[in-house]
Amino acid sequence: MDQNILIKIIKRCRRKLNLAEFLKKLLSALCIGTGVAILFQAAAFLIPLYYVNLYCGFALLLAVLSALAVAIIKRISMQQAALTIDRFGFEERIVTAYEHLSKDSPLIALQRADAVNQLSLHQDRIRIPILPSWKKIIPVPILIAALFALALIPSETKKQAQELHNLKEEVSEKEEEIEELVEALTQLEQESLTPEQQAELQEMIEGLQSSLADYQQVTTAQMLAAASEKLDYRYENMSSQIDSLAQSLQNGAAVSPVTAQSLQAMAEKLQNMSGSELAKGNGSQNGQGNGQGNGNGQGNGQGNGNGQGNGQGNGNGQGQGNGQGNGSGQGQGNGQGNGQGNGQGRGTGSSNTQHDYVSVPNAIADSGNLTGNAVNHESSEYFRAQNGLSWEGEHVSHESVIGSYEQNAYEGISQGRYPSGMEDIIKDYFSSFNERR
Predict the structure, then answer these.
(1) Band of pLDDT at residue 395, cut at 50, 70 and 90
(2) Radius of gyration for the chain, computed over Cα atoms and rounded to the nearest angstrom
(3) DSSP reduced 3-state for 298
(4) Which of 19, 29, 35 is nearest to 132 (CA)?
(5) Apex CA 320: angle with CA 316 and CA 326, to 5°?
């Protein structure tokens, strides 16, 4: 009976001692961990660290775990707890009784009974504080408050870290997307296709691999935008190519219907994945355009482009003009009067509006058979047209010529024929022509 009472009291004291030691070690560890976290937050003002808050959380968690581990490893034993109890005026009665628990001689029994009796009479002497002193507690909340203050202060470096993180995530998504497409096209290469179809698929795979290399080199938002525009344009071309390939497979190629259907689905997927301004521009060319012009004059006709055009002619000043023709996209004019028109495409005909022309020869001569003075142009044959000089030959609009050059330029961008960084310059160059039309 005396043994059970003695062990119960010693265990209760040992739990308090272990808890007090753990809290003491925890405060010390938190001071160190919070200090490390503050260093992380300070570094975030100089270096873009997107995961700085996560690093701080790890530092604090590591501090708690280290304090717990040390407390478990260095936990207080029953004998140490008994010695601690003796310090409250029991003159080593408790530790002596504990050390001789396994013995049962009359003398030891008397000593144990005396120890238990003293514990029962003077148990109120045993006062084991659990919380450390306030001097050790105060630094911890101060450091934690400083940590949160630093975390909440905005800075350009933190904003840059967020942008870089978003950039990496978008690049990673695009890389995964391209790799999936390359894998799908590689599997299609294994089908029974003609050499021409195999070459076409291989060209698409190489183009996607080129785009993948572009994304792997992205370090800025500008580079990402350029790579995305290039990829979107490539998706547009691939969509039409795969759609044509799917149609040819459905018309008798020695492949399964499932393959043709998967190609058709891939073409639709590429069309949906394309989100560039170029794709939007091509879509608007196949729809209707709205334009307003000031002036008097009526023109109606069928366009050679995509869609029909109904629009009012452009004139300067007051007056009336009669003519027939087709509107082309959006147009603006100066003068008095109001009018509206909808239309797309380039029309043929004549009106009182101004047009710029270039000349295309009727036939291309062999350079070896050319004769005449290349320097003296006084004998050149030309005639004065309605709005300027026009040379003999087939007259076409400058819009169609620029459109042809623009298409070739974008195809060159898609195939990676231009140096890195030139894509935006080329697109801006042709966009300036589009704004003038």
Answers:
(1) low
(2) 43
(3) strand
(4) 19
(5) 80
Instruction: Dihedral sign for Cα 63, 69, 73, 78, please.
Output: positive
Segment holding 180, helix H or strand E: helix 156-189
Burial tier of 18 (Cβ tally within 10 Å: 0-12, 13-18, 19+): middle
CA–CA–CA angle 308, 309, 310 (5° rounding): 130
> Helices 156-189 and 221-250 sit at what angle, rounded to 10 degrees?
20
CA 317 to chain centre: 52
Answer yes or no: are the C-beta atoms of 47 and 114 closer than 8 Å: no
Q: pLDDT per residue over 8-63, tens digit each?
A: 999 999 999 999 999 999 999 999 999 999 999 999 999 999 999 999 999 999 99
| Environment class of 16 (CB within 10 Å of its CB; exposed 0-12, middle 13-18, buried 19+) | middle
> For 217-237, how does the pLDDT look when each residue is reduced to its tens digit (9 = 90+)?
998 888 888 888 888 888 888
> Alpha-carbon distance 271 to 286, whole Å?
15
d(CA 226, CA 221): 9
- Return the closest-CA partner of residue 380 out of 367, 390, 366: 390
Nearest C-alpha neighbor of 356 from the set 386, 321, 327, 326 = 386
- What's the token pair of residue 124? 């109120």
pTM of the model: 0.53
Q: Helices 257-273 & 156-189, crossing angle to 10 degrees?
A: 160
Alpha carbon of 229 to those of 43, 139, 223, 271, 407: distances in Å? 35, 54, 10, 14, 15
